[in-house]
Amino acid sequence: MNIAFIGFGKVASTLVQLVNSPDITFLTSHEKRSKDTMDLIKESEVKDCPTLKEAVENADIVISANSPSNAVEAALEYGKYCKGIFLDLNNISPKTALKINDLTENFVDGAIIGKIDSKNPILYLSGKNADKLLFLNDFLSVKVISDNVGDASNLKLLRSSYTKTLSVLLIESYRLAESLNLEDEFFDILKLTEGDDFKEKSLSRINNTLKSTKRKSEELEEILDCYNAQDLEMVGAALKKLRQFEH
């Protein structure tokens, strides 16, 4: 079986490590890639095709894992060459998932819940062809929600609306504590209710958010575009703050 990646970053490289089978060959291409991505492709020891078109044409499964803003463009450019299953793992809205469904055959809407490099990442799937990916249960936890394209994306965005908004609030509170020279005490009082590992997890979340503000802003934009923004005032405020962190 051949599995091709559109986009080759952390998600793709980690899946290559997780889905470790002599019966599976991973494909991608260095075409139009940055030096960092080309280095990652080399390190991951996947088959590097001359063009991404060639990789997609020779794949039984195509996985799109780049960014929400590029998801439709990637499907438009390469979906027509996909003869097998087209799995999107970008943090997209249900509306975007339906657009991609119209551009591809055998589409599966996917959502990775939790960090892909965590001990137990869970892959949620929806769509009529989702059951065909249950073999991935041999390598990570896979849950098929329904036959409805968009259900996995809905769950992904619901989770993001909570976690990313909470991350922005955490950054604000932590910076205020720092300005008062009370950062250690800040975590001490919070771990009384949030658990002993709250400080470690919080600092990791803060660092992750600040390192990827652009991508997280795109994800919040998807949420506001998908749902009624008037009902998501906190998400809107979090997006505004995230944009400030970019500067």
Give the termini distance in whole angstroms. Answer: 44 Å
Structural class: alpha/beta
Can you tell me the number of structural domains? 2
Query: Which shape, going by the Cα principal axes?
Result: globular
List the secondary-structure elements in sequence, H or E: EHEHEHEHEHEEEHHHHH
By CATH, the topology of the largest domain is Rossmann fold
The major pleated sheet works out as: 8 strands, mixed
Mean pLDDT: 92
Low-confidence regions: none
CATH superfamily of the largest domain: NAD(P)-binding Rossmann-like Domain
Per DSSP E runs of 2 or more residues, the count of β-strands stands at: 8
What strand line-up does the widest sheet have? 3-2-1-4-5-6-7-8
Coiled coil: 203-230
Keywords: Coiled coil
Domain Pyrroline-5-carboxylate reductase catalytic N-terminal: 3-75
Protein name: 3-hydroxyisobutyrate dehydrogenase
